[in-house]
Amino acid sequence: MATSGFTSFSYYYFYFYSDALLTICLYFVLMNLYAHVFSEMGVSKLVRGGAMLLLAGTAGISYRMVAMSSDRLVTHFVIELSQNLYFVGVVLTYLLWGAMTKLRENRTHLMQLVLSTAFI
Q1: What is the pLDDT of residue 73?
Q2: Do residues 47 and 108 make contact, with C-beta atoms less than 8 angstroms apart?
Q3: Is the per-residue pLDDT at 118 higher than 80?
Q4: What are the angstrom distances between the C-alpha of 112 and each of 24, 32, 45, 82, 106?
Q5: Nearest to 76 by CA among 8, 13, 2
Q6: pLDDT, greater one: 110 or 66
Q7: Gap between the Cα atoms of 45 and 56, Å rounded
Q8: How many other CB atoms are found less than 10 A from the CB of residue 84?
Q9: Global pTM?
Q10: Rounded to 5 degrees, what are φ and ψ at 106?
Q11: Helices 44-67 and 73-102, packing angle to 10 deg
Q12: Angle between helical axes of 73-102 and 9-37 (0-180°, round to 10)
């Protein structure tokens, strides 16, 4: 492997670790959108608690998937967590969009923000 460039270990680690960090940040942005949409119902704390449980569950499942079959546990865990959390985020985005249409949410900017997070 090269010591620099696209084929180096440094690039590989930077790419996957920063991707995982950005996916976690996107997850928190999505949870804030959930809290904002459901704030009128007074369930913001329940949404945040559920989001933390879902994040912990996703991390736990990712760890279990990697722990049995990997020699580079941390690197493979970061990659698996990023992929799983991205999938969960996409599903949650469409669920939030469905809830917003069901609640007849008329804030256009909020609807556009929710739909734009599904394609990031």
Answers
A1: 79
A2: no
A3: no
A4: 21, 15, 24, 24, 11
A5: 13
A6: 66
A7: 17
A8: 17
A9: 0.81
A10: -110, 15
A11: 150
A12: 30
CA distance 63 to 92: 21
Torsion, Cα 116 117 119 120, to 10 degrees, reads 120
Q: What is the pLDDT of residues 48-99, one digit of tens each?
A: 899 999 999 999 999 988 888 767 778 889 989 999 999 998 898 888 888 8
Identify which of 16, 2, 12 has the alpha carbon closest to the alpha carbon of residue 82: 16
Q: Ranked by mean pLDDT, which of 34-38, 39-43, 70-74 comes out on top?
A: 34-38
Joined together, the tokens standing for residue 99 give 């809830």
